[in-house]
Amino acid sequence: MANETGIGAAVKRKEDARFITGTGRYTDDIGAHGQTYAVFARSPHARAKLNGLDASAALATEGVVAVFTGADLQADGIGDLPCGWTVHSKDGEPMVVPAHPPIAVDKVNYVGEPYAVVIGESLEAAKNGAEALEADFEELPAVVDLASAASADQIHENVPNNQTYDWELGDKAATDAAFAQAHHVSSLEIVNNRLIPNAIEPRAALGEYDAASGLYTLHTTSQNPHLERLVLAAFVQIAPEARLRVISPDVGGGFGSKIFVYAEETAVIWAAGKLRRPVKWRAERSESFLADAHGRDHVTKAELALAEDGTFLGLRVKTLANMGAYLSTFASSVPTYLYGTLMAGQYKTPAIYVEVQSLFTNTAPVDAYRGAGRPEATYVVERIVETAAREMGIDAAELRRRNFIAPSDFPYETPVALTYDTGDYEASLAKALEHADYAGFGARKAASEAAGKKRGIGFSCYIEACGLAPSQVAISLGAGVGLFEVGEVRVDVTGSVTVVTGSHSHGQSHETTFAQIISEKLGVPFENVTVLHGDTGRSDYALGTYGSRSLAVGGSALIKAIDKIIAKGKKIAAHMLEAQEEQVDFADGTFTVADSNQSLTFPEVAFAAYVPANYPLEELEPGLSEKAFYDPPNFTYPAGAHICEVEIDPATGVVDITSFVAVDDFGHIVNPMIVEGQVHGGLAQGIGQALLEHGVYDETGQLVSGSYMDYTMPRADDLPSFTVDTTVTPCTHNPLGVKGCGEAGAIGSTAAVMNAVTNALGVASVPMPATPETVWRAAQA
Amino acid sequence: MEISITVNGRSEALDVPDNALLADVLRERLGLTGTHVGCDTSQCGACVVHMDGAAVKSCTVLAGQANGAEVTTIEGIGNPDNLHPMQAAFRENHALQCGFCTPGMIMSAIDLVQKADGQLDEGDVRDGLEGNLCRCTGYHNIVKAVLAAQDDMKSA
Ligand code: FES
Ligand code: FES
Predict the structure, then answer these.
(1) A16-22+484-630 and A295-469+634-780: identical CATH topology
(2) Which one of A76, A393, A483, B48 is most buried, by most CB atoms within 10 A?
(3) ipTM value
(4) Is the CB of B112 under 6 A from ligand 1?
């Protein structure tokens, strides 16, 4: 039976009712009686010793309640902000980790690093107090340039060469041998520009402490409240987890930047306990620019070895990755296990060797931003493949086809530690070529030329590893946490259903898609399903949302819980209908006995579970509420083909995207409307990286692009409408056959745009972002 | 200073600091938290409301400037049982994800459509919403929604 609110239906979203009427509840919308306001004093210097801090004038400022320094936190036993993934260097040594106190104690290492927090009766009082602080800074030369950071001044006492690790993956000897045999070698120097995530909701926190119960409650803008609680309890030592509740209510976008545990919420929850009063903080946008974890920022040399017919023989990649001033929560994993492992792309390249040196600079910490490592990997692979096609005079689509892993090759083990379960790369490319009217490109190019314009087309056949992650694999590679997910299905007495998930929606629409799954599997009307998330007080420990994992991992946990509900429901129904359990079938919300006309509805069985009059109490507990944990056996591998066509006006350097086609394989799809929306948003971010966005520090370490006037966000008039389509090879190892769609747009699109721009200009490379000035200069050459 | 403003049809007399911003007064004093604040340079449009019928960025308007004005916020244009056509079109076209930009986006879009008198094409909508940032949707569905609402508002 086609279920209009079931799996595969473009159901309108539940969450919209509140968001379109202005009744969403974001952290900053929540207040507590008697709350105080926190303002952070932030370093104006990229690198300096903090020789002293005179807070007397601040404390004397009207309305100032308290001033806390890094030393105050330390004296109270508050620990450092940890990095949750230990990467090992080539020599087997674990990465070198510098101390990262939430509030700087005696030195500051990036502009915007907090060195004190001022608490006031009002926001204004706290701001005035912060202005009155007198900090004695002794400026030191800043290390800003990534390429030379290893030989610059040492930033952290315990970190020689500013290097946290020097990591490798793949077979160096085999790769060198492949290059020795190559007919052709293409090489490319690539800079993956620094991005600033810029969720439109700034980060915020409200900390409360209840002295009577000793319970702390933190409302904050987190993608993973349990992880936040774990870090605050186990590492920062605020309180044991049982006395700490973290709530992420409606969250206005994350894109990775709200995964991490930051200084601000740490200080806020601690101060609430100290002062025994609620403490509230909301970032101003300039603070978001300075102190949210940034993304990307790699310098790479890539080489591809090819045989005469274009067969890929080997890929060699050497990358410098910028960590910023400290190791943010998952920073170390991004340029390694989320990057090097993706270097096979969609291709049968037999030998691959990747080296990554991650370095500290006096800039904001860098961590996962939408795609996290995989966009950087795709950019390397798809730029070098396109370059090789041009150099060898082979059609760019054809060269890819010749090297694709074929459907018959799955499961396919890459030389860089992953086993792809399934895919059909040629199918996505073929569909994309059709949508893009590749055959008509020549005519369009001629027309553009006749009008004095340059036209180009670019491809990107990306792959990503999502559904993070098989816990044991991740832990063996250095992860400090498991990466399973929890799902709970609470059937109510009358048969409505409350789902509690450890996944968190900050735009992804779990309240809708998870309800669709319940509607499909249990036959419960969509409107009778409520999905709760984002509260450690409601769900069991789980890992939250990032890495396109919610449906693949969280949805799978939900399916396991549903299976338990059905299994128990069958037992109850069998008892009530005086049948054998094996004879009872469940479909479309009804339990039926085979070869009979006996049946019970789902609500009837639910009612019996809670009003157990006719119920096998001696064998079965009453109630109908089940929970399941799901740990994925493998990553999922969404993949697809993106094709971008641009027209460039050589007189102005303006790049006009005349068409953008994305054909993605996400496996089965629960809600196509929502999936398309996810792709659109990702494309905008990927195109933004290619053409507009750039996080820039000057040589003294000042953030030059620190506001919306200086950092170019994609706006409605910068972007085209997109052509989005899908192909389907279901994931083979999760119960829904889903792969995840949250990051694909941002992973695939950047390379497609830059391949199109370089194709139009007839040049080997153009730096990102390809702003009009950059493109104009390239066009003059 | 003492001000009196009409917000969503209700007159309010308030004593506010001279430097209070309309956005903060709406949020903190009147509890109308549907109006969001997303930046400090008047660039994101999350705070857009209507003042005497025109869209304004309420983070850039002093509460004192709104003295005597009629202000309409996202809470004042419709409710779940009786949505404004623009609200309905946003839902129908999946023009929102996290919802944070949405109130400002809807208030800007209504103003845009009203001023254009039903004549907007895709390019006009893209130009007209240039003052509102959305990080989630890539604008594709927002543009669709505004064009759809334009038709609905015409026939309404
Ligand atoms: S808050 Fe950004 S424009 Fe008003
Ligand atoms: S829907 Fe999230 S910023 Fe627009």
Answers:
(1) yes
(2) B48
(3) 0.98
(4) no
